Amino acid sequence: MLSYDFYQNINVDMYDGPSVESPRIARYGDDGIGSKRFQTKTNNLLIRYYGEGIYAFKSAFRLYFEQSLPFIEHCDQTNGTMIRCRNGLACIPITHRCDNIFDCSDGTDEEDCPNINQTFTNGCGWRKMNQMLDDDNDDTLQIVNGKISQPGAWPWIVSLRLVSHEPIGHTCGGTIINRQWILTAAHCMAEYPNITDWTVHAGKYRELIHDSTEVIRYISKSFVHPLYIGSRNEIDNDNFTWYDHNANDIALLKLNAPLPDRMDMIGSICLADEQYGLDEGLISYVIGWGTVSNMSNMDVLNEALVPIITNEKCRQWMIDFNIGPSMICAGWEAGGGDACQGDSGGPLFVQNIVTKRFDQIGIVSTGALCGEPKQAGIYTRIPSYTSWIRNHTNSQFET
After folding, report:
1. Would you state the pLDDT for residue 25?
2. DSSP code per residue over 204-267
3. CA triplet 54, 56, 57: central angle to 5 degrees?
4. What letters, b where the CB count within 10 A reaches 16 and e where it falls short, cover 115-134?
5. Which GO terms describe its molecular function (predicted)?
6. What is the pTM of this model?
7. Residues tagged active-site
8. CA 270, 198, 266, 148 torsion: positive or negative?
9. What whole-number distance in Å separates Cα of residue 22 and Cα of residue 140?
């Protein structure tokens, strides 16, 4: 995969072989696309970089190499004994289906199996490492005014990625609430409602590069809250307020197969129930791969601390937003940590002072100026939707 920052009249050509006479498999620089993925068929790659004028001295590119298994078009179907993994990376004996062992890295062999245990052995809201956010290591770039997370710090975060946009496919975050269900924002699914457009990546740390701990799943079902309006064209905007368009920003995604039951990089978060207290000043956590303070995107997961503020104060800070009861606001009066573009769908969560587990209280929904003074992030309030979540998942999550 190659990423680049090019000026006009700058190009990089990729040849699948040792010379320019070899097949050219990619050209970069003249189409305005910042990243592309390509695959060679030989063990040689020739890179030809060229440009014209002074701009040739101001451009650059990065190239990431990744070894992958050869793609399998068809399996040997003698007596119908083999099945092909959907990602085309392996063929497995049909007898391996539904044995609770993931022979296919995408879970194909464990799809639609009976008697699946949806919960993680260690329960929800736990993680293997004991890292906290309030230490003194603040010399890094941010989610917005936060810091870089450690691998495995937050095992419930997933990256929702558009297949057609890879390798820069990260579009939204989401959270694991059990081994087969993901919670995210409705607006993430609104523009691309076709579930085949997406893949879900758990155990992920770096945005652009595949991690050794990464597990990929497909979406089998998507449930956007039926009262979510968003920016649908068929809705008469004059008859609806800002709150009407942004309320109910919540969606559930069912995975094609369960996630592996392991605590190191993959686990579930607990959900705050209807009686959960969300007092002003409660310090919460927000994480994601979104825009950071320098208006670029980091390649690794970031985290920040934000305090809860009342909806009344939120309306005073942001007079154009009629914040409603199904929303939570969090932010610093003087400006500070905040979610931003690319963090949508990810969690707002707290550590329960009694149980010490981590409980999700919100979903990154919307906002205005990221991290600026008196500019709060606006989140979907989880306790307002616990019953809706329970009805769609058959109560297979923990509060």
Report:
1. 80
2. --BSSS--TT-EEE-EEEEEE-TT--TT-TTS-GGGS-HHHHHTT--EEEEESSPPP--TTT--
3. 75
4. eeebbbeeebbbbeeeeebe
5. serine-type endopeptidase activity
6. 0.83
7. 187, 249, 344
8. negative
9. 43
